[in-house]
Every structure is written in C-alpha cells, then in structure tokens.
Give the backbone structure.
Amino acid sequence: MAKLPYVDIDLVEFGRTNTLLESHRLNTPYLWDSDHESALKLQAELLKELGIPAKRKKKGEKSEGAGEGNEVAGVLDMKRFYRTLLKYDPNSLLHGIFLEKVAGRLRLPRALTGFIEAADVSTADSGGVKNDHVFPKKDESSGISSKEGYTNVPFPHTEYVAKDIRAYFNIDLGLIRGLGLGKSSEQLLIVLSLYKIRRFLDEGLRLRSYCALEVIGDWKACRPTNYNLPNRSEIEALLPGLIEAVAGEGRFAEPSISKIIWTKSKKKRGEKGTESEE
C-alpha cells in the first residue's frame, strides 16, 4: 500500500522527529544543518529536483550560489518547486513552507487555515490552594515558609467563557488548483484537508487544560453552499485510493518515507572550512 511521503529524522540519542511534526516542515534545520551522509544525500536530491545549484549559506560563510544577501539568480521554476514538495512532503503544500535554507523565494502560503472565534466573552473567577499536609503554615522554629515551596498556598484563577464559540476553516481551492499538479493530486490534497479538519473536530478540541470543547451539531460549508461535507469514515475510505492514484503516477519519492540521520555540523558559523571540507 502506498504511503504519503515525508522525511523521517533520527536524532540519535535525542530521539526522532519528522517533517510532519516540524513547524517548518522540509525547511527544518534537522535536515539542512546535518552533515550525516544520509542527510547530505537527501539535500543533494532536493536541490537537483528544485534545479538549484546550492543551498543558502549561513551568515559569514563564503557563497558561490544561493546565500544571505546573494539570492539564486534567474527565474525560479515554481511548478518544479511544487512537484518537489508533493514528491517528498505533500503536507508542506497544505500547511505552507518558506524554504529559505535553499532560496528565499521558494515559499508557499497555507492552503489550509482555520481559527476559533468567541462572542459575548466574560470572566469566570475561581481559586484553589496548594496543600501541604506536613507544614500547612509557616513554622519559624523549623525555618519553613512558602518561599521554599512549603505550607498551604492559596491562589486565584481566572478563566474566560463565551456564549458562542465557532471554528472556521478555509481550504484555498484556487491555490491548490493553481499548483498545476494534476487532477489526482488536487483531489488528494482537498480530501486530506477535509480529513485534517474532521480529525481535529473529533479529537483535537482539548486545546488547553481548562479548555475542552465539543462540537454541537455538525459542520457545514459556507462556500460553496450546496456542498455536502463527508463524514470521517467516508473520508478515511477515500484516502487510500487517492494516495495510490498519485503514487501510481510516479509523483512520490521511492521509498516514500525518506530516512536520514541528524548529526550537528562541527563547522562553526562563520568559520572557514578545511581544504577537504571545501
């Protein structure tokens, strides 16, 4: 079964991460600042796919290609950029990316956005106490006080409530279609966006400790108004076939999950490398 592509990063003794979790997706420093052979190989593949001669250099490093204050010359092939994102990390097409570690003009806004808005907001004041069952109050003979974390400590607490809380989501269909990736890829990105929204509404509404929301009723489309939104089971049934269709067109990397190892470059910022490094 085909899988959605992403980059899996082994941080060795620090654990693991991947471009699905990284805030900057393919622009993560765990990819571009690694000097491990696996990372350098993937960097080279990405640069070749993008048609870029070299990644942006760090400030102070000598640059013959792209770099701070020395941007890649010429007209960038943005269609090629979009195809590369689809090949290695399609989620970057939905959540946006600024691939400044390669070239400052390689950027794409978010196709999927959302926000939660509250109306008629008011405060709800409460309080509590941190209990100490050994020294409930200051004990001068023992030198015990609240400054060191002892004794009972009362505290006030203020929360906010609202009469009406609504979540709004936007899938920029014009942006997705404008990527020029073809019908199968467009359908995959749109259905994947719907899945993310539905999954968030079903399981992601505990936004913080005192904020556990629940959907009342069902979602509805504002534009187009005649669109019947599928439920989660329907979306989940569609996704495997759409992923297979795009993979069948040869649009995904092989293997779809690119695995690299992160090792922090020993070369200091601004320090000229050795002759062998250069």
Q: What stands out?
A: The chain has two domains: 6-111+172-261, 119-161.
